[in-house]
Write a structure and sequence with these properties.
Strand content: 15-25%
Strand order of the largest sheet: 10-9-8-11-12-13
Largest sheet: 6 strands, parallel
Helix content: 40-55%
Structural class: alpha/beta
CATH class of the largest domain: Alpha Beta
Number of strands: 13
Number of domains: 2
Distance between the termini: 29 Å
Mean pLDDT: 95
Shape: globular
Order of helices and strands: HEEEHEHEHHEHEEHEHEHEHEHEHHH
CATH superfamily of the largest domain: Glycogen Phosphorylase B
CATH topology of the largest domain: Rossmann fold
Low-confidence stretches: none
Radius of gyration: 21 Å
Number of helices: 14
């Protein structure tokens, strides 16, 4: 989604954008999407290797002014192959948190791959989405002068408060269903609040590999009538939920930024979020939302209880959130990325 929002506007300005992406079942191997020429190949296990092996040929074919590597989990090692203008864009590093997400051999492989960044990518220019990610790179030996922070945006023409809808008594959780996103924490937080708010419910939006385990966890807790798993929904449906929810809970253990936080802010939905990388950047604690102590579900329930019990606090967070969201838009993000790419091209 971010790639689309950032780079599609550049094609409308006359720039040529070519994207090589991972294939998936039933996909078109080549197509145009809003001016972006998309090529798909490989799968989750082979894509990174194929990119490294084929990059030289792609450069020879397309003759780009600049190459952008979207580094997520496994590097493509583009600096080894390509010596021209290059930008590495990324949301976050996994670091030790990957060991909580997958089996040890795979986690170790990803961790070691990230460790190679400090050597293979040490002279590269980076585009990151938050101070947290920048600081992680600096700790790995990348100079701060080589890192540009370009915050994620939101569609501020679509994500808006609604005066026609009243807030309903449910907590909204949005994200890909993976263990590190903390969906089971959201279920635990709901359970802790039911004594005080027996009518309270939890709506979990998203799909992913953790879906079946999450459904089992909800059944074991006996909370099937209190928790709704929507699966994938349209953007219009997501906006409607954000306009009606009492609280948006962001329980992820690690984020690059936390886009749903800004989207909730824009819709006037109070935010309670885990105090972790990325989320502590997107949330201004006490102004645009409330942070809770890292993975402390008792404190998360305490913060949500405060929001539900205090109309003045609700108004404070809603007003502060709407003001905060106005500072972020995809148009601004796209413009800043274009200027950064032009700067890299001119420098090289």
């Amino acid at each position: 989604m971010r790639l689309h929002h950032v780079y599609a506007p550049l094609t409308r300005q006359g720039h040529e954008v070519i994207l090589y992406a991972c294939a998936f079942p039933g996909c078109e191997k080549q197509e145009q999407i809003d001016g972006i020429e998309v090529h798909r190949l490989g799968n989750d296990f082979t894509f990174s290797f194929l990119c490294m092996m084929k990059l030289r040929g792609w450069v020879k074919k397309h003759k780009p002014d600049v190459v952008v590597e979207d580094l997520n989990k496994l590097p493509f090692y583009s600096p080894v192959v390509y010596k021209g203008p290059l930008v590495i864009q990324m949301h976050h590093l996994w670091r030790s948190s990957i060991f909580k997400e997958t089996i040890f051999p795979m986690a170790l492989f990803i961790w070691l791959s990230e460790e190679s960044i400090r050597w293979i990518y040490r002279k590269c220019n980076f585009s990151v989405v938050s101070e947290s990610t920048r600081d992680e790179l600096v700790k790995m030996g990348i100079s701060k002068s080589q890192i540009k922070i370009i915050y994620n945006g939101a569609d501020l023409t679509a994500y808006l408060p609604s005066a026609k809808k009243e807030r309903e008594l449910f907590i909204l959780w949005i994200g890909r269903l993976q263990k590190y996103k903390g969906p089971t924490d959201a279920v635990d937080v709901l359970e802790k609040l039911l004594a005080d708010f027996p009518a309270l419910k939890l709506v979990i939006v998203g799909s992913g590999p953790f879906k079946e385990k999450l459904a089992t966890y909800i059944r074991e807790k006996g909370l099937e009538d209190k928790v709704t798993l929507t699966g994938f929904i349209s953007e219009e449906e997501k906006i409607d939920l954000l306009q009606r929810a009492s609280v948006h809970l962001q329980s992820s253990y690690k984020e690059g930024w936390g886009l749903s936080v800004i989207e909730a802010n824009a819709c006037g939905c109070p935010v309670v979020a885990n105090n972790t990388t990325g989320l502590r950047d997107s949330v201004v604690d006490g102004e645009s939302g409330l942070l809770y102590c890292f993975r402390n579900n008792d404190h998360a329930a305490f913060q949500i209880r405060n929001v539900l019990n205090s109309a003045p606090l609700q108004s404070q967070l809603i007003d502060g959130g709407i003001k905060r969201a106005k500072a972020f838009s995809w148009d601004r993000n796209s413009s800043e990325m274009l200027h950064y790419l032009q700067e890299i091209i001119e420098t090289r």
